[in-house]
User: Which sequence fits this backbone?
């Protein structure tokens, strides 16, 4: 049981490049989400999904795309990277079954630098 | 919109002593949940404790307890008998109890806790 995995751990991009941050979970969780963490700011929700084929925007969705074709995977795409997207990105998942469950499982994070 | 504020960027505590981390929040909702998460250097987020707003009793988990003051919109975390392994960044978080709120968590800026041997 690997929990939530993220790849890569580190990435450096040039402005305008595109890339995909991978996230996978093996707990059969319906809910998956992406956050970014910046110095002096709390975690901010980018996008989330409540099941395959269902995604929605969070607090800071601009510049990011997501899709959810399977329960296990929830990739985050940067179509044209900008220096403002330099951040640490966390993927998280949780089950929606049961009453009021809030135990979120976070991945180890991806540190992205955009030059 | 809801907000979560942590006014202490950094705190220090001597090993075996007690420390309290502060968190205030703002919401117009009456039913919601509050959380404390721990983020060690490994960067993974660990749920420390959860408080349901409709419960008057303060939540406790072993050495961790909260002081939930709903009227004051205050939610502090007390760590007793601090251990070196408690050193981490601690985040206060909120989510609405509404159906849509199930999916959106709001985090504070975090408090870095240092434990001194």
Assistant:
């Amino acid at each position: 049981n690997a929990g939530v995995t993220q790849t890569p751990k580190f990435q450096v991009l040039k402005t305008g490049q595109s890339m995909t941050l991978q996230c996978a979970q093996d707990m059969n969780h319906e809910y998956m989400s992406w956050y970014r963490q910046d110095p002096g700011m709390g975690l901010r929700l980018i996008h989330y999904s409540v099941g395959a084929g269902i995604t929605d925007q969070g607090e800071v969705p601009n510049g990011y795309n997501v899709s959810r074709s399977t329960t296990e995977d929830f990739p985050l795409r940067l179509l044209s990277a900008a220096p403002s997207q330099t951040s640490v990105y966390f993927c998280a998942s949780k089950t929606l079954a049961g009453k009021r469950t809030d135990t979120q499982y976070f991945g180890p994070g991806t540190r992205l630098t955009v030059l | 919109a809801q907000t979560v504020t942590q006014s202490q960027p950094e705190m220090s505590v001597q090993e075996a002593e007690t420390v309290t981390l502060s968190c205030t929040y703002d919401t117009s909702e009456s039913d919601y949940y509050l959380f404390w998460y721990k983020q060690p250097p490994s960067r993974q987020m660990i749920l420390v404790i959860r408080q349901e707003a409709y419960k008057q009793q303060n939540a406790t988990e072993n050495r961790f307890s909260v002081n939930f003051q709903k009227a004051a919109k205050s939610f502090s975390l007390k760590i007793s008998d601090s251990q070196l392994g408690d050193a981490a960044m601690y985040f206060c978080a909120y989510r609405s109890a509404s159906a849509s709120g199930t999916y959106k968590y709001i985090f504070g800026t975090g408090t870095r806790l240092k434990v001194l041997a």
Observations:
- The two ends of chain A are 36 Å apart (CA to CA).
- The interface with chain B takes residues 31, 33, 35, 40-45, 48, 50, 56, 58-59, 88, 90, 92, 96, 100, 102-104, 106-109 of chain A (CB under 8 Å).
- Chain A is about 0% helix and 50% strand.
